[in-house]
Task: inverse folding
């Protein structure tokens, strides 16, 4: 095989494989997987020996990559997170080269790609997914909507509790310190929505506007991945001092997530040294 793969990139590949394994069963881990993927360097199989030395490739550079055929006849371009993942998928020596994921995605725009085929954990990427990853890293930018004063809406609790979504969001919020509490409701603005939407209210502290926007972006991706149907989910910030939606969520519902203070106390309270 052609080898010029940095050992640090091999470790990076192992981390990516671990995140992929977690993301398969836990939607809360998928934003972390997508972030790691877009920063990763991966291996691609070439149709001939890669040139010696350092090679700089950009979108549009000529490069002949191997394309595999799936059982259904569809053609996919395989790529691998590490030399070990590649070796598990091929027999004998195969020429390959390392490429940043962003360069690979830009060079192969419109193609079906497959990460770690013939491994225990792998993922196929459609052209639409690749385009979205290049555009926003896999987490769609939320649409902001302002409820004008006097807007009439119905708010209550969902008849069918979205347990999978709540579990996934709970896992995500436990990893994000600014989230103090999270609440769930069903809201219906008849002037703009045909049917009610799930609403997640977030009480946060110690976060900038950019951090809050990134948090809601992640939470929206996790929520949509966890829901069985393509069901819209709204997010809003809540505050104990505000009326309206904040008052309903905080005073009339129970938070499905509440930050554990113990993790903070361990950081700020030193050991007393008492025997």
Result:
């Amino acid at each position: 095989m052609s080898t010029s793969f940095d050992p640090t990139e091999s470790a990076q590949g192992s981390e990516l494989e671990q995140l992929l394994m977690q993301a398969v069963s836990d939607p809360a881990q998928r934003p972390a997987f997508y972030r790691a993927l877009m920063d990763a360097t991966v291996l691609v199989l070439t149709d001939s020996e890669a040139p010696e030395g350092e090679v700089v490739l950009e979108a549009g550079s000529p490069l002949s990559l191997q394309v595999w055929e799936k059982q259904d006849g569809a053609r996919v371009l395989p790529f691998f997170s590490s030399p070990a993942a590649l070796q598990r998928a091929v027999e004998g020596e195969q020429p390959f080269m390392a490429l940043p994921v962003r360069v690979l995605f830009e060079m192969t725009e419109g193609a079906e790609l497959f990460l770690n085929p013939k491994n225990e954990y792998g993922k196929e990427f459609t052209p639409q997914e690749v385009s979205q990853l290049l555009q926003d890293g896999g987490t769609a930018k939320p649409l902001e909507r302002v409820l004008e004063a006097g807007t009439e809406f119905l708010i209550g609790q969902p008849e069918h509790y979205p347990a999978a979504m709540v579990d996934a969001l709970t896992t995500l919020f436990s990893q994000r310190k600014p989230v103090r509490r999270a609440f769930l409701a069903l809201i219906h603005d008849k002037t703009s929505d045909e049917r009610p939407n799930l609403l997640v209210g977030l009480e946060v502290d110690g976060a900038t506007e950019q951090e809050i926007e990134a948090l809601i972006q992640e939470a929206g991706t996790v929520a949509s991945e966890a829901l069985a149907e393509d069901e819209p989910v709204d997010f809003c910030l809540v505050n104990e001092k505000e009326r309206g939606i904040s008052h309903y969520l905080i005073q009339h519902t129970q938070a499905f997530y509440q930050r554990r203070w113990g993790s903070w106390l361990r950081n700020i309270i030193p050991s007393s040294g008492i025997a």
User: Anything to note?
Assistant: The two ends are 60 Å apart (CA to CA).
